[in-house]
Design a protein that fits this description.
The protein is an alpha/beta fold. It is 36% helix and 9% strand. It has helices at residues 3-14, 89-101, 118-136, 152-161, 174-180, 186-205, 232-246, 273-288, 293-296, 310-317, 331-334, 342-351, 369-372, 401-406, and strands spanning 48-49, 55-56, 59-62, 107-111, 141-145, 164-166, 219-225, 250-255, 324-325, 376-377.
Length: 408
Amino acid sequence: MDIQQKLKILADAAKYDASCASSGTTARDSRDGKGLGSTAPGMGICHSYAPDGRCISLLKVLLTNACNYDCLYCVNRASSNVPRARFTVKEVVQLTLDFYRRNYIEGLFLSSGIIRSPDYTMEQVVRVARTLREEHRFRGYIHLKTIPEADDALISEAGKYADRLSINIELPEDTSLAKLAPEKDVRAIRRTMGRLRLKLDESSDDKTKKRPRFAPAGQSTQMIVGADAASDQTILATSANLYGSYKLKRVYYSAFSPIPDASRNLPLQAPPLMREHRLYQADWLLRFYGFAIDEIVDPDNPMLPLAIDPKLAWALRHRDRFPLDINHASREDLLRVPGFGRTAVDRIVATRQHTTIRVSDLARLHIPRRKALPFIVLPDHRPPPRQLDDARLIERFAPRPAQLQLGL
Ligand code: SF4
């Protein structure tokens, strides 16, 4: 099989993994002429958008899609009837360098099915990164998937070469993992996440810089949504635990995608993509907007509404807290106004120090008027009486059904 055929199979096999963001690494720059590639000036997500809105691309491949394991939700599982391929270490290195030189990519995302043993697989993955860094002075971004059961020394070495490491938690509940991926050991996954956290802490606490660098962009994970019956409440609680216990940079939510010849234990249909989108929004509210989980989902409402975003849903349930005078409200309260992002809130706080904000200023502050006006007071605007009490207010915001399915 030639390398192009392998690439077709192994890039396609990697597309189900969403955990390839590349934010937060340290800048490595080769403009001094001593190396190849650069993570500066910006970072991003595989064929997707960085938080700063910039699109970057990584070569995202598996070393091999052959796998000893038989995770039911995975197209590469041992019992799957898909064409198999395997790159050599040299081939992945060469592809990365070729694509980089042609400006197709800014880095590499490398994962692998588990062959022979976790240590053998991890060793192959590490060899790719080591060859790129040490033999070719590659300074682009590298994200490596970590095999949970691999030896500690291999994981340390992976962190020496990679910007980011990730281990997929896969499913929000341990019982689902036991049922759908019986060979995976949730304790080993969590133990390795804990080991990564310790190494990351040691590395960031080392002010002397004597320790070898360790994955400066941190660790991340992926959770599949909709392959089991877990509610959004359960998913968000698992994420909160992962962020708290292992200091993850990101939890990625990946809507389950039905695979050929799937087990009867799996749903026949994918969940709406909007569900994945709403989980990302809720995740951000929990991490950056001061919301607690039970303000967003609770036992009576365990699923996020699909029709409106979770902050708007919260605001509509707490109409007594609005309208808010944005020239005087606290930063914490401003963060809870529908349509106000963190940057907009920073701009409001800075602007109101020297001038009074009016309706005509909203566009300059990047605030969507239609969404925000029912919830705010300005010197030249006050929502009409009873508008906030109107049960039909939600209709003003609800997207069309087609948008719900597409995740727009
Ligand atoms: S370990 Fe499981 S999820 Fe990973 S490639 Fe193998 S079958 Fe797929």
